[in-house]
Fold these 2 entries.
Entry 1:
Amino acid sequence: MGTVLFVCVENTFRSVLSEALFNAAAPTGWRAESAGVQATATINPLVPGLLREIGIELGPKKPRLVTPEMTARATRVVTFGCLDRCPIGAREKSEDWPIPGATGKTMDELRTIRDELRRRVAELSTRLEASTVSAKPS
């Protein structure tokens, strides 16, 4: 069906959480991946624990640089304030979520960000599922 590409600057926190949250409850035929416009070497070390608290195991994950091929392959692109730096083709199928990053945040603030991402991912999943159902021939 489709792929959702979550893109943030470093691919260490928001995009990684969103990818894991989406894949844990993805609509049939959908999957997510994540990348960054300036990917760093490692993900935020707090991410696995934040996911584990809500029953999701992350597994091995390294930040990746977003490529034109990734945006071309994606059905939907969700950015976190970096759309202007995404490869060509992202804008036509994107939405931007104005959610803060992890820098300087307390654990309670990080949990609040995770929970807001969880809410937005669930809403996105519902929209994608509805568009998939309405697109099927009757």
Entry 2:
Amino acid sequence: MKTGLGYRGCRANAAAPDPTVTLDLGSSHPIETVFLIPAQREFLEDSGIFPKRFTIEVSNRADFAQRTRV
């Protein structure tokens, strides 16, 4: 992974779980807007710079036992 290209999650194989990113904000905060910014292309023909689908889940519990899909 090259520095500066952004996060690129992928499955090691088809049976692997979906890639995830978890952010701990340290305390509860109101969230009004979420911006998703695609990673920068590594080369011109690179088509994998943005997920085709994604889910955003929020929780105030570390284990996400109670969560809300946004």
